[in-house]
């Protein structure tokens, strides 16, 4: 294929741009918008918030002491008949503080066997232990509850780690401490406790990547899990204990000043509190609503194939067809992405639409450039056969009837010119010499007409016809016709001297000019037409030229009157008889321009 190298290069270029990650940020954000949908939760998760009301009534969180949460746990578990299935403390209680309060929290958390506490690890870049490579997920430290609380509860890590674009859309399944211990996630521990409470099996492990992260399909946006139940509401008995019976109760920060909020895939504009992020994880685990992200290599192979196909299809197509095909590919792929996502597979949403759009725009631009170049080439070629003014008139896009037969009456100046003595001279010369001399004369004629803004209608053997005043109106068009004739006469004298030296022969021009109304337009049939002028004015100019001796310019009285005082003329009266003209038609010679 002629453009095969270009096609492969274009498809490969798109592939390299995506491999370089130039569209990753936009792809992830668009995927979040396209994939993440609100879903009604089961209602089994209740948030008990450390909210602004609780802070205002109890005091700053750092002054609460661990007894406040201990009392909250005791109140939630006070009735044996309606205790929560599990209580998750999304608060890191690392290190001992006050012996009495530490003991009270540990006893309250361990007494009922339904409390899960939080731990957290710190990761950062470091050198690998076996080989010298940079490990961005190297465990730097690990914080867990103080010993007494650790002994009486089960722990799960609450690490929330952003993707490279600063959005939380994955969760870490477990942490390997490197000493044989693996710390499960806070959400998975709570989900398993909840299922155990109802006699069900443990949740299945979601598909994870090489670093142990799984894709989170958020069922709620910021605020969706909140029922505005604060710690103070539990402490003061504003919510009946029965409301929490058999449910998952998450206790955690829910105020801006506590700095526990994240930008999530569910909503980029509003941050989500950590306790609600955990609620989303738990609900997803309970549903088993897992999504598997397809390996990039497989998607890149498909992308290359589609990009390659798009270049082939769009390269030589019309703009309308290209647009329809582009819309079909983009729209169809987005629907496929949605369909497979609902069945558990995550595809890069923007890769194929972005590459197809780039190829589509590039193909439109290239095809437009090619059409402009081709149109310019055709127009320039056309202008070598037809007068440029006529070409411009015919090609005007705003004139719908420019290619229809018909004309209009216009006042024009018409000039005919003929090479005198050329026929007899050509009989004595070779064909190549004849063509060479004729072309020089015709080139001179064309140059004089164009230089004076005339429309070269046609060459008729060794003669030519031109007119002024059409197809576009012109100022002083009669004078321009006269100047063109005078230029031809002077140019003919100079050319005659050159031909005499080169060929020993010479010829001259006979010229006729008349002015008046004529029909100008497309004359002929729809299959073949000429843009020309017809009428008595044209015929009269032709008669004047046919009677003019070599080196002479004949004009009519109408031309002389219109240019009175601007040209020098000699009247021949009615001595020159023009075919088809009545007696008394005055013919004049143009002697020069004043």
TrEMBL record:
Protein name per the record: Adenylate/guanylate cyclase domain-containing protein
Domain Guanylate cyclase: 413-545
GO molecular function: adenylate cyclase activity
Listed CDD domains: CHD
Keyword Signal: yes
Keywords: Membrane, Signal, Transmembrane, Transmembrane helix
UniProt-listed InterPro entries: A/G_cyclase (IPR001054), Adenylyl/Guanylyl_Cyclase_3/4 (IPR050697), CHASE2 (IPR007890), Nucleotide_cyclase (IPR029787)
Record-level GO BP terms: cAMP biosynthetic process; intracellular signal transduction
Signal sequence segment: 1-20
Protein's UniProt keywords contain Nucleotidyltransferase: no
Family of this protein: Belongs to the adenylyl cyclase class-3 family.
Pfam families per record: CHASE2, Guanylate_cyc
Gene3D superfamilies: Nucleotide cyclase
Membrane spanning residue stretches: 297-315, 322-341, 347-369
Highest rank taxon of the organism: Bacteria
